[in-house]
């Protein structure tokens, strides 16, 4: 029964991202890949593939700030190392979190620059329109073609900004879900500790600023 509920979680994840721009989908958490790695970790006949091992080694060398779970106390209170499997799995998640951070931050910054550019374009277009004599509008002033084009472009930008917020929320939940599945199947208890780490990451902490800027962008579409 538990397995059915887990699959429903994954189906909900893919349902939630299906309408996202292709570029956003490509940057989402690879749910199936991580689930298969749990299967591999639980299979005593299979060792970590050379491809993943070399990938982790390279990433660890280039990113010294990768998350690492602290040693857990044993029954007698002395520290003990976590299993190799747990550290391998969290290392895979580290890579995904770092990738999502980079994608969201760079995308957010480019969107903020675009929103500012459209705002300046609109101000200039409105200034020029005010210079037109009222006689040119016998039935009252109407939005110029230039202003309408700017409005439509701004609205398209708004939809992308809104989808980036959804990207942040969905992937936060996806990480939590795959961790819960990992703990359930392996007997580990890393979800709470790792999620505390995730809450400090850019793809989560940038969300409030993104919401504010997206609301401002929507105002420009009116």
Automatic annotation (TrEMBL):
Sequence ranges assigned to domain SPX in this UniProt record: 10-196
Domain of life: Eukaryota
Database matches in PROSITE patterns: SPX
InterPro entries xref list: SPX_dom (IPR004331), SPX_prot (IPR031142)
PANTHER family reported for this sequence: SPX DOMAIN-CONTAINING PROTEIN 3 (PTHR45978), SPX DOMAIN-CONTAINING PROTEIN 4 (PTHR45978:SF7)
The protein's name in its UniProt record: SPX domain-containing protein
């Amino acid at each position: 029964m538990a397995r059915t509920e887990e699959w429903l979680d994954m189906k909900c994840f893919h349902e939630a991202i299906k309408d996202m721009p292709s570029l956003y989908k490509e940057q989402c958490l690879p749910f199936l890949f991580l689930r298969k790695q749990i299967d591999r970790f639980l299979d005593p006949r299979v060792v970590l593939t050379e491809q993943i091992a070399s990938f982790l080694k390279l990433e660890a060398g280039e990113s010294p700030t990768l998350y690492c779970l602290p040693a857990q106390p044993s029954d007698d209170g002395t520290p003990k190392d976590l299993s190799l499997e747990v550290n391998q799995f969290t290392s895979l998640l580290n890579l995904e979190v770092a990738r999502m951070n980079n994608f969201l931050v760079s995308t957010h910054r480019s969107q903020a620059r675009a929103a500012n550019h459209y705002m300046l374009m609109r101000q200039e277009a409105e200034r020029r329109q005010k210079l037109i004599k009222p006689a040119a509008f016998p039935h009252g002033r109407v939005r110029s073609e230039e202003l309408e084009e700017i409005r439509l472009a701004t609205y398209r930008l708004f939809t992308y900004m809104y989808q980036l917020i959804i990207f942040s929320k969905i992937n936060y939940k996806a990480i939590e879900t795959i961790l819960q599945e990992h703990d359930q199947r392996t007997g580990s208890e890393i979800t709470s500790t790792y999620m505390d780490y995730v809450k400090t990451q850019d793809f989560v902490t940038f969300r409030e600023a993104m919401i504010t800027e997206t609301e401002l962008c929507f105002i420009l579409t009116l």
